[in-house]
Amino acid sequence: MIKVVIVDDEPKLRQGLQTLIPWENLGFTVTAAAGNGRDALKIVEEEVPDLVIADIRMPVMDGLQFIQRLRSAGHQMHCIILSGYADFEYAKQAITYGVAGYLVKPVNIAEMSATLKLVREQIEEERLRREWYRTEVTNRELYLRRLLAPQEKTEDPAKLRSRIREMDLLWSHYEIVVISLRVPEADRLEHLHQLYAGLKNGIEGRNMGLVTVISPYVILLLNSPLHGRQRRDHLYGEIRSIAGDTRFIAATGGTVSEPELIYSAYLKAQEAVKQVFFSAKDRLLEPERTLFAAPEFPCEAGDKDEKMMEDLIFRLYYSLDAGNKTMVLPLLNEAAALFIQQGQEEDSVKQSFFFLSNRLIHKLTAASRIELKETQNISRFLNGIYQQDYLSDLLEETHRFLLEFAEDAGPKGKEQEIKKMIGFIHRHYAEDLKLSTLAGLLNYSTPYLGQLFRNKTGEYFNTYLDKVRIQKAKELLAQGMKVYEAAELVGYTSVNYFFSKFKKYEGRSPSDYKNP
């Protein structure tokens, strides 16, 4: 039976329609009635009728407003409009919302019966079409599952093609997209089917392809290639919109033109999903384009992994201890490059970063007492390494934590200022540095700062500066630079003065050092 709801503010008319029309003989059953559109909306949500018969003029919410609300809420049931002669122009507006019929009051039973017969034929035809579609799509979906399984070598290609044609799956191009949800295993099945339902409505509703579930994936078989970043980003955005707050990974296996190649594209998409940790965030992953863009690690023949790791830890510690923040992220990227070059998978990379970070934290706190709050922060950070979905996020979080921790764990007060002063000298040794200038910046008297500096370093300020300059000059001379060029680059305006300083600290002239 086709369910009907009658909406009219006149009780007699509602009662008359229910008793005078031979509903059952016509294939209908009246399940409810309402006196205005607002009450009818509540009934529609509960009854979900196939047909609504509504008067145009009603209090609280009239018929036109009622139909507008039905359509905006997504209800597609048929509607028949009742109105007086004076409401004809008003009724024509409702017809634009796709009503199945328009009848003038007082209702003629024969006219109403004829209209109901036409509506019944339309509804029955739609039901048959929906049932056919459900059966056909189910069959196609089952066949899609077959295409996503390893193909038997003995299967006749001609028969395979014939069956694919019967299923209306013989397309010029195929593109497989695999979606994996990052949710606890206990909740995965529910989330998979929610995403499946939403994508099935969108993808199949627009005739873009088929959607199915093969746990742990939701799988799309698209009938046109995702050429261009814009198309891939648009599909990724659609998946994200349906998934809501559910975390997911989506990857394509690339475009193929033969149905026999669908399975190999499916395997490529799965492999891309597995490499997500090394991929760019928030985009549709592509086969062989997912690896993290790490710099080439400077590895010499014969280097041992342990030695390279220790070297990285030393350089990171020195940068953090000296307050050289700009070097920390490049060194962390270098570490990532080393781990990738070693062929480490996601879990191993996370374990390596755990080890590296833990060693740095111990070195930074070797001479200080760690408070309980700091211990909790360290534990939270180290455990969080294993929760990162992407290598880029792991690097960003490690960089942030180490910088903050080094600053908190570093020396305080005067000791910290002397350390900053030493770092400043190493960065600006080539400039005209004076102790009096630094004393003014740190708000100390020149003699007092000089004494603090000597107590910390064991050297007078000018002696320390000279030694830094001479050490840098030695590096430049070893690279083949001329003596006068090296002198100028390290901050000496007089070559003769540079000669005297170099000989004082090195026991020989710059020329003898360069050409022993």
Automatic annotation (TrEMBL):
Listed transmembrane segments: none
Primary location: cytoplasm
GO CC, one annotated term: cytoplasm
One GO BP annotation of this record: phosphorelay signal transduction system
UniProt subcellular location: Cytoplasm
SMART domains, sorted: HTH_ARAC, REC
Residues of the HTH araC/xylS-type domain: 419-516
Gene Ontology MF term list: DNA-binding transcription factor activity; sequence-specific DNA binding
Domain Response regulatory: 3-120
Modified residues (4-aspartylphosphate): 55
Alphabetized InterPro entries for the sequence: CheY-like_superfamily (IPR011006), Homeodomain-like_sf (IPR009057), HptR (IPR051552), HTH_AraC (IPR018060), HTH_AraC-typ_CS (IPR018062), Sig_transdc_resp-reg_receiver (IPR001789)
UniProt KW keywords: Cytoplasm, DNA-binding, Phosphoprotein, Transcription, Transcription regulation, Two-component regulatory system
Keyword Cell division: no
Name assigned to this protein: Response regulator transcription factor
Species assigned in the record: Paenibacillus sonchi
